[in-house]
């Protein structure tokens, strides 16, 4: 049954992406994203961009196992602000460093790996 399940999962890979590209296991068995979270170092910093608007920039989230766009989407909800994901970074309008940090910890990123600047 297990073998059959794997075969089905492999067959459906192109449609459903149920197989982890890193370890080749079905996603429900895969722990890559957990390991990944433990290995990543995330930087949250504030930059003042054009027109003097502060922007919170989240850097270092590995987009291999994390959907940056949907993480950005959730962060926008948590911080009630505008924002976007691009070039492997999440940009949020305003200073939301503390909220972003709390949210990432909730997602399972180790506190010690998140650097607040
Ligand atoms: Zn995996």
Shape: elongated
Succession of helices and strands: HHHEEHEEHE
User: For the report, how would you describe the main beta sheet?
Assistant: 5 strands, mixed
- Taken as a percent bin, the fraction of beta residues is 15-25%
- Helicity range: 25-40%
Total number of helical segments?
5
Q: Please tally the β strands and state the result.
A: 5
Ligand catalogue: zinc ion
> What is the distance, rounded to the nearest whole angstrom, between the alpha carbons of the first and last residues?
50 Å
Gyration radius, rounded: 17 Å
Poorly predicted tracts of residues: none
How are the strands ordered across the major sheet? 3-4-2-1-5
Mean pLDDT: 86
In words, what does this structure look like?
This protein is an alpha+beta fold. It is built from five helices and five strands, in the order αααββαββαβ. It has helices at residues 2-11, 13-16, 32-39, 68-79, 97-107, and strands at 42-48, 54-59, 83-86, 89-93, 114-116. It has a five-stranded mixed β-sheet, with helices on one face. Strand 3 and strand 4 form a beta hairpin. The longest helix is centred in the middle third of the chain and has 12 residues, at 68-79. The radius of gyration is 17 Å and the shape is elongated. The chain binds zinc ion (ZN). The site of zinc ion has 6 residues, from loops.
């Amino acid at each position: 049954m297990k073998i059959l399940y794997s075969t089905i999962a492999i067959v459906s890979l192109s449609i459903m992406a149920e197989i982890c590209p890193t370890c080749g296991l079905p996603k429900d068995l895969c722990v890559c994203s957990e390991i990944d979270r433990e290995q990543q170092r995330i930087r949250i910093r504030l930059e003042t961009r054009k027109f003097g608007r502060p922007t919170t920039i989240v850097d270092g989230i590995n987009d291999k196992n994390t959907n940056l766009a949907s993480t950005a989407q959730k962060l926008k909800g948590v911080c009630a602000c505008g924002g976007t994901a691009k070039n492997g970074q999440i940009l949020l309008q305003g200073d939301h460093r503390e909220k972003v940090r709390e949210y990432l910890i909730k997602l399972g990123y180790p506190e010690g790996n998140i650097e607040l600047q």
